[in-house]
Amino acid sequence: MPFYDALVVGGGMIGSAALRHLTLTKPHLRLGAVAPSEPQDWAHHEGVFSSHYDEGRITRMLDPDDVWSRLAEESIGRYGSIEDFSGVSFFNESGFVAVGRDEEGSWLRQVKDSSERRNVSRKILSGEEARSRFYPIHFPDEATVLYQKERAGHISPRKFVRASLKASEKRGADLIDEDAEAVSASASWDEEAGKGWENPSVDGEGVGASESDGRLWDVLLKNGTVVRARRVLVSTGAFTNPRLLNGLRGGSLDV
């Protein structure tokens, strides 16, 4: 029976990124992901159908929420290293334009204020200036346009997932190209609970270990194989097959 210290169930944008982070922070552990590939025949496919089967997601730092903007900045800052290590390019730095009325309480004013607080590089254009720069798009005279030229644009979700999984595989993680049918608590118990899960050391000393009651988890695959793991991260999105979660026995799963 295949056994892992940690197994990610789901190989979409979140699951693939989670696996990549695990390979960076816990490289000494046995890591894997149940990550079925995109079906070739959409019309007759009856298995997993993920949300990343498209080619365009906007990415930028201009946003009314400071926290969202900061998180976006951190993510965008990692694109280059992920592309270089995986050999898969997914980011098109084409820029981003926000358009609206610069009025008190408006969405655009909130974006503008946030960018000033966070010192996000952008240009403020009038409707006339924007029409000249972005012809043939017509911007109203009364519009205010915020233009972020660098570290903004769009990514290919398909290629981002491919890059994340490729990077994880290069660092030793296993990829299981199969659908997961159920996650359940195993009848077996782990005699080495928590081993290898100590937090990164500070000046050579460990800073604590994660809690574990010794429970192991079994993941049933569509082909009948059972994969066992000390920890399972279910990252299967909003349209998860209920059978996957209903298979829990003898334990609970935080959702």
What can you tell me about this protein's structure?
The protein is an alpha/beta fold. It has two domains: 3-53 and 158-246, FAD/NAD(P)-binding domain; 57-155, D-Amino Acid Oxidase, Chain A, domain 2 (2-Layer Sandwich). It is built from six helices and twelve strands. The strands form three sheets. It has a six-stranded mixed β-sheet. A three-stranded antiparallel β-sheet has the order 3-8-4. Strand 1, helix 1 and strand 2 (31-34) form a beta-alpha-beta unit. Helix 1 packs parallel to helix 5 and helix 2 packs across helix 5. The chain is elongated and about 70 Å long.
Task: Spell out the key features of this protein.
alpha/beta, single chain, 2 domains, 255 residues, D-Amino Acid Oxidase, Chain A, domain 2, FAD/NAD(P)-binding domain, oxidoreductase, 6 helices, FAD/NAD-bd_sf, 6-stranded mixed beta sheet
Global structural class: alpha/beta
Count of separate structural domains:
2
Q: Catalogue the unreliable spans.
A: 200-211
Helix content: 25-40%
Rounded mean pLDDT score: 87
N-to-C SSE string, H for helix and E for strand = EHEEHEEHEHEEHEEEEH
Radius of gyration: 22 Å
CATH superfamily of the largest domain: FAD/NAD(P)-binding domain
Q: What's the main sheet like?
A: 6 strands, mixed
Number of strands: 12
Write down the overall geometry.
Answer: elongated
End-to-end separation: 27 Å
What is the CATH class designation of the largest domain?
Answer: Alpha Beta
CATH topology of the largest domain: FAD/NAD(P)-binding domain
Region (Disordered): 187-210
Protein name: FAD dependent oxidoreductase domain-containing protein
GO molecular function: flavin adenine dinucleotide binding; sarcosine oxidase activity
Domain FAD dependent oxidoreductase: 5-250
